[in-house]
Design a protein that fits this description.
Residues 2-60 form the RNA polymerase sigma-70 region domain. With 168 residues, the chain is mainly alpha-helical. Helix content is 78%, strand content 0%.
Length: 168
Amino acid sequence: MIHRYAARRAGESAAEDVMAETFLVAFERRDSFDQARNDARPWLFGIATNLLRKHHRTEAKMLKVLAKSSGRDSYADSTDRIAERLDAAVAASAMAGALRALSAADRECILLFAWAELSYEGIAEATKVPIGTVRSRLNRARRILKDAAGPFRNDTEEAEHGRAQATA
């Protein structure tokens, strides 16, 4: 699960390193794990999330150096690369754009929920914020993503939902 989460966040090439470093850090900090907890996933995903932040900061610095040496704008270069990796489908592009538009905190919560399949409690533990904050962040992220998906949403589901309400 850690590998899949890291691959989705940073790409396949970085996933192996992030996964290995996650377990190395977990082993080094094993005394800090509360053994009363029956699930170590939130703790591990918290470590992985911190390592992914570090990876993205390092990658951004490298892109700036490359851009300066080539005389090109690093932000434009990284945006072009991200856009090239996105699925060609318009709906996927819209959703990817909406994900990028989320704040870093909201994006982390929605990705831990959707890709790492953590519960609200697990996300709160992984991000070290109160569960109410997790609920707020997920609600805000869902609303933004729902708005972005507006023109691409499945109208059949809405029609069936409307019919079910009309017959009730």
